[in-house]
Design brief:
Helix content is about 5%, strand content about 55%. By secondary structure, the protein is mainly beta. The protein has one domain: Jelly Rolls. Strands 1, 2, 4, 6, 7, 9, 11 and 12 form an 8-stranded antiparallel sheet that branches. About 30% of the residues are buried.
């Protein structure tokens, strides 16, 4: 659906304002830890409801840490979305040695990014364009350890996910 055109003096109805001017925002309310588990699980906080026949600009800032060296656990993630949706995305992050890295993906891809040690938070900046066809639903982060280990992989409070409708 293209962005609507309004005329001067037209009063916008509530659904126009809600759909076109209000950014969807989800913020991680507390730090969560996973150990000894590489099975992706839905994050309870980082989820937004998207409508059908819409295009969204997505951004997520994922603040995480985990083991390094012999106990490197990494941070594995993907996003789930309505069955009718397609997405193309990229993520920027720093590896365990501090070098800037990037990866790109589509809806079926699971990405794994480096952890740099417990208490050494890293930032994964995720950007995407989400196109939702005939089925509304949730756009939601799933995550786990990239390599199973007893050292916690953590997703920090304050990580966030936003969706702004652009079409």
């Amino acid at each position: 659906m293209p962005f609507p055109t309004w005329v001067p003096g037209q009063v916008l109805n509530a659904s126009d304002v809600d759909q076109w001017f209000i950014e969807l925002v989800a913020v991680k309310s507390s730090t969560q830890a996973i150990a000894n588990n590489t099975t992706l699980a839905n994050d309870a906080d980082l989820v937004v409801a998207v409508v059908s026949s819409a295009v969204y600009k997505i951004e997520a800032n994922l603040i995480y840490d985990g083991g390094t060296g012999g106990s490197e656990t990494d941070f594995k993630f993907r996003f789930t979305m309505p069955a009718s949706a397609t997405v193309a995305y990229g993520v920027l992050y720093f590896d365990a040695g501090g070098a800037a890295k990037d990866q790109a993906g589509t809806a079926a891809d699971t990405l794994t990014i480096s952890t740099g040690g417990v208490g050494v938070p890293k930032l994964g900046l995720f950007k995407a364009l989400l196109t939702v066809a005939g089925t509304a639903g949730n756009f939601q982060l799933q995550w786990a350890q990239g390599t199973s280990g007893g050292t916690n992989t953590r997703l920090y409070q304050g990580s966030y996910l936003t969706a702004r409708r652009v079409g």
